[in-house]
């Protein structure tokens, strides 16, 4: 019994390029969501997802049935992210406590939101999602990556280990550490206080 | 199931990662224990919140842009050409073909690519200005012109066989340095030139791009490291007169213990013969490091060359340096220390066989993994510490053929950081193993990259200082790591620690220059004996000239 995604990738590999649209249907949101969890920048996340599809198309003949479709696609995504991350354009030291660059980041994000999304979504983003975004960006890169896959994509640790090329035990300990760090960063163990930041006047 | 297990398992069970029976026991405990029930609810709430984190809807032009990009890759042509009748047959023919050949083809291509990458890598090395056996820091400074950093290698000669595809948007490989052509390199490239059909698969090309990009980073890091070593070691900056004297005496003692063949025998000084490789490697690290006055440069250089040659000769068929049957921890220590010595030798002088160094790193990864698969043994903690230090050393030396080195280093680091309960850090009362892990994790970054990274596991300065206060924490390699960490942080904390450290070392230094104290040795330290302790003493004293703040 072949997984439907595997079937699509196999058909693409065999030259049925018309199934590519369906592959994009299938993986577009997961990829955008994945990159967004990594960088917190919707524009960049979409650019990355697009680039994954381009790479996937170029590499289409290399898909073999012994690889899980998720692994195949997300490995491309992971490799791309390494490139992007390394190139330093992604997120200029957003983990640092550099107020200026953080502010710029926020400005950029809110401009994007303001320009292309409805006001309701913009407000939603500006509150809990913004806090989550800030907290996620504070996490070490490796911890953010496992969270993006374990929570954002509901993947099994074994699959994540395959994609990231790390032992399952490391995935597990990173998830653990990431959740502990997030709790601290979000202050969830303290009684929920009114949201800070630029709330409604 | 007790409360600790329950809390530890919470996130994994809630993510659906645990086996049914474990999950069932977890739920049972959660329901019966109000504290764990509340904890589980908090974790569940957090997971729900993170799950809700999503990107805004994808922009409307996403598909059309993608389509345009694909058109450039022949998507439209393929779409027109697709002939429904032949498809099924073609697919299965392709699958059959693929299954038969893919593994062999991939392996061959990957091997070829690795060879090409390493050829490129070694071309990209900086010029080898160092004289045979010359020691950085003791020899006259070689002027390093800022206008000619090592990454600006000589004339460019693109590798003939491989033309990497254009970089992805957002990635930069503009400054890939190719070395000047010379006989050896031409030969390497000629040998590895591969038939243009089939082309290299995209993933290999991607890795090539990534590898070349990394090389640039390595080259920069190496450049900084050398500059620092030369500039600072030359005038002894950063070392107090007391430290310098202690280092000189210990260095002289070490020199006296070296055998004709270049090795050191730990069994002569309260150690065991098994650690001969590791101890010799540490002695090499101590001797080849700068900052020792009062020891003739030429003599040191000659001894280092001899010792490094001997280390090289201990490699077995599997590539292990200093294999000890039935003693994993000592084997890992031997191999890791030797790898460190080679990596640093390469940074300082370039006089290391490239294949040896990259093989050593690969083998280190193997040994480290083997260790993870079995039960903990006496000596593991120290051996793992050396493995982590060695990986960082190799990384900063720019070991070229290990494409996954970052993964390996990240893994080593995660192993240390993952084992620390961060909630205990503030209290300053970490259990011994966690303290050791935290101090090691704190040392890895600043030592080799000179860029201390703030992390969740950073211990408060007074806590790190416990290494000098609690007898059970007194282990030479841990003291070395703590010194690196605190020196990198600088300030009053370092000043206080340095005074204490010198005091402590002065008390343990023998009349003959060696270091000898009652430390909490594990199997590695016991095997290393006084030589181990003395070499690490020199390394610890030398931290200020070795590491930038
Ligand atoms: Zn309980």
Say what the CATH topology of the largest domain in chain B is: Glycosyltransferase
Average pLDDT number of chain B: 71
How many alpha or pi helices of chain A? 9
Alpha carbon gap, first and last residue of chain B:
47 Å
| Quaternary status | heterodimer
| Alpha-beta classification of chain A | mainly alpha
CATH superfamily of the largest domain in chain A: Winged helix-like DNA-binding domain superfamily/Winged helix DNA-binding domain
Largest interface: A-B, 83 and 70 residues
CATH architecture of the largest domain in chain A: Orthogonal Bundle
CATH topology of the largest domain in chain A: Arc Repressor Mutant, subunit A
Task: From the alpha carbons, calculate the radius of gyration of chain B and give it in angstroms.
Answer: 27 Å
Extract low-pLDDT stretches of chain A: 88-124, 190-201
Describe the model.
The complex is a heterodimer of chains A (201) and B (549). Chain A is mainly alpha-helical and 201 residues long. Chain A folds into 2 domains: 85 residues, Rna Polymerase Sigma Factor, Chain: A (Orthogonal Bundle); 87 residues, Orthogonal Bundle (Arc Repressor Mutant, subunit A). The longest helix of chain A is centred in the N-terminal third of the chain and has 20 residues. Chain A is globular, with a radius of gyration of 18 Å. Chain B has 549 residues and is mostly helical. Chain B folds into 2 domains: 158 residues, no CATH class; 311 residues, Glycosyltransferase (Alpha/alpha barrel), CATH 1.50.10.20. Helix content of chain B is 62%, strand content 0%. Chain B is built from 21 helices and no strands. In chain B, helix 6 runs parallel beside helix 8 and helix 10 runs antiparallel to helix 11. Chain B is globular and about 75 Å long. The two termini of chain B are 47 Å apart. Classes of the chains: A mainly alpha (201), B mainly alpha (549). The interface between A and B is large, with 83 and 70 residues. The complex binds zinc ion.
